[in-house]
Design brief:
By secondary structure, the chain is α/β, with parallel strands linked by helices. The protein is built from 13 helices and ten strands. The strands form two sheets. It has a five-stranded parallel sheet with strand order 2-1-3-4-5, with helices on both faces. A five-stranded parallel sheet has the order 7-6-8-9-10, with helices on both faces. Helix 12 links the parallel strand 8 (about 275-280) and strand 9 (about 305-310). The radius of gyration is 20 Å and the shape is globular. The two termini are about 30 Å apart. Bound molecules: 6-O-phosphono-alpha-D-glucopyranose.
């Protein structure tokens, strides 16, 4: 009903708008008076977490894109090797797991069969499993050693939005917590990342307030057949997520590529007026990556692409090459996906509407896939 949708036309629009609160709620109660983490819910003893020598993250769909970003945070902050794997591939390749492996299973619904099968396999091999889940008491957390709940609230639209942002927040917390118990990340460092994470809700709000040009752009592309997405580092999973949203909602051919792979194939797809969305990393911090992406934008534009550039506020280097410029607030590099994904959700939702598609219930898709 209209009331359930909180005045929005679709649950997806409501859920996109709820993201600042969902992000803030997922941090709530998990930071102590000293600005450090207290994840008492994670009932895996610190002594076990200190011995972990490998992390493996399994998930499907949008949750898998959260996993790819989590890997970068975990390795950067803890120096523990971390792999990600699509849950549907995981157990069929006889993965190497033992008592010192921490498996993180990310699932909004907690009922995805492939993810459940992956975690069962991991536990049979003696690994410890931590679920990151949005649904209290669902199967995946019940069968895991521990759970860190995301506090997104119920997500009704089939295409995941607010659950994704809270999965990222929860994974950042797990990464910091691992650093905290193992002593690879301490005191002031943790406090400063926590502070930056706490500022993100307001940054997401800022993004949401500036989405009208993105909606207009989406409407203008309604009769296109293909949209490509490019990104690097954390921007690569964001590009994949932007493409997934467009497939799910707009039924368009959409593909995400690592920008560095452009010359190894994707550049052959570039033709006049092809819309290409580029997620640009912050020019501060990893400036090498930033400069490389700027030359990628030049390269595709020289071949006729219509460039849609998502770049941090104040990044002037992209201006000459952006046919459409979508600004996002400056954030630390690893946290950028929390703001960079939002315009892509809005873009896909508006394109779906413009193409006359059912936003909340896309054809052929289910909110949770409970068969293998
Ligand atoms: C389905 C949904 C996606 C979701 C995926 C994983 O494909 O349509 O939105 O990302 O399942 O679901 P989960 O509940 O495990 O996060």
């Amino acid at each position: 009903s209209a009331a359930e949708k909180g005045g929005y036309d679709y649950f997806m629009l409501k859920e996109i708008a709820e993201q600042p609160k969902a992000v803030a709620d997922t941090l709530l109660g998990r930071i102590d008076a000293n600005g450090l983490l207290t994840l008492d819910e994670v009932r895996i003893p610190d002594s076990v977490l200190r011995e972990v020598d490998k992390v493996v993250i399994v998930a499907c769909g949008t949750a898998y894109h959260a996993a790819m970003i989590a890997k970068l945070a975990i390795e950067h902050w803890t120096r523990i090797p971390c792999e990600t794997e699509l849950a549907s591939e995981f157990r069929y390749r006889d993965p190497i797991l033992d008592q010192r492996t921490l498996v993180i299973a990310i699932s909004q619904s907690g009922e995805t069969m492939d993810t459940l099968m992956a975690l069962r396999h991991a536990r049979e091999q003696g690994a410890k499993v931590l679920a990151v889940c949005n649904t209290n008491g669902s199967t995946i957390p019940r069968e895991s050693d521990a759970v860190l709940y995301t506090h997104a609230g119920p997500e009704v639209a089939v295409a995941s939005t607010k659950a994704f942002l809270t999965q990222l927040v929860a994974c950042y917390l797990v990464a910091l917590y691992l650093g905290q118990v193992r002593g690879t990340k301490w005191g002031d460092e943790i406090r400063s990342v926590i502070r930056e994470l706490s500022d993100i809700a307001a940054a997401v709000d800022t993004v949401l307030e500036t989405m009208e040009p993105v909606r207009e752009l989406a409407r203008s592309l309604a009769d296109k057949n293909t949209v490509l997405f490019l990104g690097r580092h954390v921007g690569y999973p964001v590009a994949l997520e932007g493409a997934l949203k467009l497939k799910e909602l707009a039924y368009m051919h959409a593909e995400g590529f690592a920008a560095g792979e452009l010359k190894h194939g994707p550049i052959a797809l570039i033709e006049k007026d092809l819309p290409v969305v580029v997620v640009v990393p912050s020019p501060r911090g990893r400036s090498v990556l930033h400069d490389k992406i700027v030359s990628n934008i030049q390269e595709i534009r020289a071949r006729g692409a219509r460039t849609i550039v998502i770049a941090e506020e104040g990044d002037e280097a992209v201006v000459p090459y952006a046919d459409h410029l979508i600004r996002i607030p400056a954030t630390p590099t690893l946290l950028q996906p929390l703001v960079a994904t939002v315009p892509l959700q809005v873009f896909a939702c508006e394109l779906a509407t413009a193409r006359g598609n059912e936003v909340d219930q896309p054809r052929n898709l289910a909110k949770s896939v409970t068969v293998e």
